[in-house]
Amino acid sequence: MSGASMKQIKTRIRSVESTRQITKAMELVATSKLRKAKQRAEATRPYHEVLAKAISSLQAGAADAPTVYAIEREVKRTCYVVIAGDRGLAGGYNANLFRMVKSMTQGQDYCVLPVGRKSMEQFQRIGAEIVSAYFGVTGAVGVSDCTQMAKLLCDGFAEGKYDRVVVAYTKFQSMLSQVPVTEELLPIRLTEVKTNAGALVEGSAEALIAKIVPQYVSGILFAALCEASASEHGARRTAMNSANKNASEIIDTLVLHYNRARQAVITQEITEIVSGAEAL
Predict the structure, then answer these.
(1) φ and ψ at 106, to 5 degrees?
(2) Half-sphere exposure of residue 14: CA atoms within 13 angstroms, side-chain side
(3) Is the overall model pTM greater than 0.85, yes or no?
């Protein structure tokens, strides 16, 4: 700022103060949304665990007819469900997720089901095959959309369009920590459970499993969506908090320069007055 006039410094201070007001407001909004998103993420975690046990229990009672969704086959093609954000200004939230997906898909034959505007833009830009562009706004995706996604993915897996389905999202760990992770959706991993000899099942176990698996996949997708939403708000809150601190530091520096420039002007005026008095 050397050589800058007092007017220029003052204009710069007002500009940075306006920016700080915006980032402060965004931080408050992110904090408010984060609290709700965190509660929703924690509430959805047990859902798919219960369904996984139910599927394993049903499959244990029909071991001679394994469900198509649990059969592992040679992975020739993978479908990735990539859940990212709709907006930027969230630090490395989107970039870290895309970096992880890029390292995983290197040299693979794959297709992508993008969820979120940033995810859609990223994979359209690199020319990846997109399964569906319907879920391009994360904020608009709800439970019914997750059900549609699950049906689309399960039908594609059953028809052999891809041999594995993986969801990639950012897991919320704390206010300051959000970690990109992946979770395999299909084929489902059945756990060893004891069959209940006294339990009665209406209809065939295979038909029940075929109905439950899409709901199970839908539950995992919704849980991942809630985790990603909480992570995005947490990352944006951290980024805006850092921006506020940087803006305050810049303002302090500018005020120091302004005071120095003002002092220099006052000193010059005093010098001119003294010189004029001596000349008289």
Answers:
(1) -55, 120
(2) 6
(3) no
Phi, psi of 131 (to 5 degrees): -70, -45
Specify the 3-state DSSP secondary structure of 242: helix
Bond preceding residue 187 cis, omega within 30 of 0: yes
Determine if residue 14 is left, alpha or beta; phi over 0 gives left, psi from -120 to 50 gives alpha, anything else beta. Answer: alpha
Assign 227 to helix, strand or coil: helix
- Judge contact between 172 and 230, C-beta under 8 A: yes
Contacts of 211 (CB under 8 A, 6+ apart): none
What does the DSSP 8-state code read for residue 140? G
Phi-psi region for residue 95, left (φ > 0), alpha (ψ -120 to 50) or beta?
alpha
Quick: pLDDT tens for 134-167: 887 777 778 888 889 999 999 999 998 999 999 9
Burial of 157 (0-12, 13-18, 19+ CB in 10 A): buried
Residues in CB range of 171: below 8 A, 6 or more apart: 178, 179, 180, 181, 227, 231
**HEC profile of 47-92:** HHHHHHHHHHHHHHCCCCCCCHHHCCCCCCCEEEEEECCCCCCCCC
Q: For the chain, what is the largest distance between any 2 Cα atoms, rounded to a whole number of angstroms?
A: 116
Contact assessment for residue 42 and residue 34, using Cβ atoms and an 8 Å cutoff: no
User: Which pLDDT score, from 0 to 100, does residue 42 have?
Assistant: 72
